[in-house]
Design brief:
Elements lengths: L26 H7 L4 H9 L11 H18 L18 H8 L7 H14 L4 E6 L8 E3 L6 E3 L8 E8 L2 H4 L5 H27 L4 E4 L6 H7 L3 E2 L7 E2 L6 E8 L13 H8 L1 H5 L30 H11 L5 H5 L8 H12 L4 H10 L8 H6 L5
Antiparallel strand pairs: 1-4, 2-3, 4-8, 5-8, 6-7
């Protein structure tokens, strides 16, 4: 994608990479073509071993697989772009007539942004923001898992505005990491990503504009979410939102609908990460660094060149293979991963204003046991009654 003059106005105070990342080097894609990672892929995806331990039984695998079904069966965002629920074109043929004849809904960018955000929340987003798309946030190439083809990827020149949706994951299930229960929270998040992005794109097409829904495909979700004002980067490499912490999954819709864009905003999360280090301490694979930010990643799965904490995806995925389940422990132990409450909201407000109490808050978080894994049995034994 070539950048149009004046098409991107950076309001971000975070660094932008100097090159576009090749999706082929993303860890889950690497597990297909990189011989070094294929033993881990086989163990994680193919060698299913049921255990008597709650969280790893056939029941838990079935629960986890059920949550992924909308993504695996209809979304396909982890397999390729422009397909399934993430197709770049709608099934309603009359939308082409709307675009060709100029029969478009015409409201101010401010009003349409308000409408789009309301619709996105109705479709399942816990938070939504809008930003301009920097060219280096779009993958240089796609690695298609259906065909194993590797080819350049571009989004249309007129669709350089992104609507980014943060889909919250279940708090109680995530606390059971790294079991099948927490994996189900992740899977349900991905299925809801496909659902929400598809519905929002269909809505925009009905207004007479182009809409390109994306999950993990096509472009980097985290910097787009940051530019859209949804959160900050973190030591664990994930987005931290103000309301849900890192307990979200991200999807986006590129569009040519005129919208008012948001801007990057901070609330103390990145500064908190500098002293907290709980994700690095509790990470079972030691994939999260406990030192200072650097500009060099560990391997080709990192987009090096900007100052940040780089996650060693090879170590992370090797633990997934060993565990035969995905892992969300870094999300689970993060002090920002809290259910809403008066005390938690008050602490967030203090963190937003000063760094003086960050070490104390980290210690308190551990004292009250928020870093402890909740047994999967507790999830299954809890019956929610309205």
């Amino acid at each position: 994608m070539e950048q149009q003059k004046g098409s991107y106005e950076s309001k971000a105070s975070f660094p932008v990479p100097t090159y576009r990342f090749d999706q082929k080097n993303e860890m889950f894609k690497r597990s297909i073509w990189d011989e070094k990672m294929q033993p881990h892929r086989k163990r994680f995806y193919e060698e299913i071993v049921y255990q008597p331990k709650i969280g790893y039984r056939k029941l838990d695998y079935a629960f986890c697989n059920a949550t992924w079904n909308l993504e695996w069966g209809f979304g396909f965002g982890n397999l390729r772009s422009n397909y399934g629920l993430y197709s770049w074109e709608g099934v309603v043929e009359r939308i082409k007539r709307y675009v060709e004849t100029g029969d478009q809904v015409e409201e101010s960018p401010e009003e349409m942004s308000r409408v789009i955000k309301r619709a996105a929340r109705f479709f399942g987003a816990g938070a939504v923001g809008i930003c301009r798309v920097h060219p280096n946030w779009v993958y240089s190439h796609e690695f298609n898992l259906f065909t194993r083809e590797h080819y350049p990827i571009n989004i249309p020149e007129d669709s350089q505005t992104a609507i980014v949706m943060a889909i919250p994951m279940d708090y109680e299930a995530t606390r059971c990491s790294p079991s099948g229960v927490s994996a189900a929270a992740t899977g349900f998040g991905y299925s809801m990503m496909a659902f929400g992005a598809n519905l929002l794109a269909t809505f925009i097409r009905g207004l007479g504009y182009r809409a390109i829904p994306c999950g993990n495909d096509t472009a980097l979700s985290i910097p787009l979410a940051m530019a859209a004002g949804l959160g900050e980067g973190s030591r664990m490499g994930l987005l931290i939102t103000e309301q849900y912490g890192p307990r979200v999954r991200l999807c986006k819709v590129f569009t040519n609908l005129p919208l008012q864009v948001d801007s990057y905003r901070t609330f103390g999360a990145l500064e908190f990460c500098k002293t907290c280090k709980k994700c690095a301490i509790y990470c079972p694979s030691r994939a999260i660094p406990d030192g200072e930010m650097t500009t060099e990643g560990h391997n080709i799965s990192n987009q090096s060149g900007v100052s940040k904490w780089y996650i060693d995806a090879e170590k992370c995925f090797s633990f997934w293979a060993k565990n035969r389940m995905s892992c969300s422990t870094c999300i689970q132990v993060c002090p920002f991963n809290k259910a809403p409450g008066m005390i938690h909201d008050a602490i967030r407000a203090v963190i937003k204003r000063t760094t003086l109490f960050n070490v104390l808050f980290t210690q308190m978080d551990s004292i009250f046991g928020y870093g402890n894994t909740v047994p999967a049995k507790q999830f299954w034994d809890t019956l929610e009654i309205e």
